[in-house]
Amino acid sequence: MDTDEHSVVSTQLVGLKDRSGLSIRAIARSMGYQNASSIQRYFSPDYPKPALPADFVARLLPVLVGRGEPAITREDVLALAPDTLTDLEAASAPSRSASALELKGQVAAGLWMEAGLFESDAVKETSIAGDLRFPSKSQYLLQINGESLNRVARNGDLILCLDFADAGIEVKSGDLVVVERSRDGGHTIERTAKRIVRRDGMIELRPESDDPRFQEPLIFSEHDEEATEVRIIAKVLSVIRQIV
User: Residue 34 half-sphere exposure, CB side, CA atoms within 13 Å?
Assistant: First the structure.
């Protein structure tokens, strides 16, 4: 391929960046990088490859999907990955040296379950490694059940979650987060994933679903005692498609 052909993927990436309204620095920080220079090369017209690394695209998914007008789709972002890796199996590549993670249940909006079902009985061992940027002990997997996150992940996909409090990071506006809502004095729990938006001390948790059942955002104040019924428990680092 000549240079013009090689630069197509960077042109597509720049187009998604412009459509999202985010700067390269904002994208880098949302992906967990400190500086824009960590990802700048992928936006350059001189980028020498016809596709972006699959693990980079996996981290990019929760940052861009759902943003812009028209909203950026999962397929828009996956188009940047190698054709043979569009399901992002490389996000759980066996060559990684991080510890294997546990599958700790499901994300299933609209499904209220007894609190005990979210504990140890739901934990399963996997062979999937975590993100080397963060401690393995602060990471775990959840499986998507249903269409509550279908702009970003499909039914059956896994999401790589980071316990942000345990990892010592702060969730930011634009992050995709896992949220738990409790009722009946904490005896029943609903777990879902939302896009976080901070405004004047308030937090709006916006849905990432095309399903009409899951369009209502959650809004609460960090300083409101009633907000304890809604708890942000993790940041979503990436989406993993299991290859059957």
Answer: 1
Residue 42 in this model has a pLDDT that exceeds 60:
yes
- Give the span between the Cα atoms of 70 and 17, in whole angstroms: 13
Q: Which helix (H) or strand (E) covers residue 25, if one does?
A: helix 24-30
Strand partners, 144: 107
**Cβ(179)–Cβ(232) under 8 Å?**
yes
**What is the end-to-end Cα distance of the chain in Å, rounded?**
33
pTM above 0.90, yes or no: no
Q: How far is CA 130 from CA 45, 57, 102, 184, 193, in A?
A: 31, 16, 10, 34, 19
Q: Which domains does the chain have, with CATH numbers?
A: 3-89 (1.10.260), 100-240 (2.10.109.10)
What is the pLDDT averaged over residues 32-61?
87
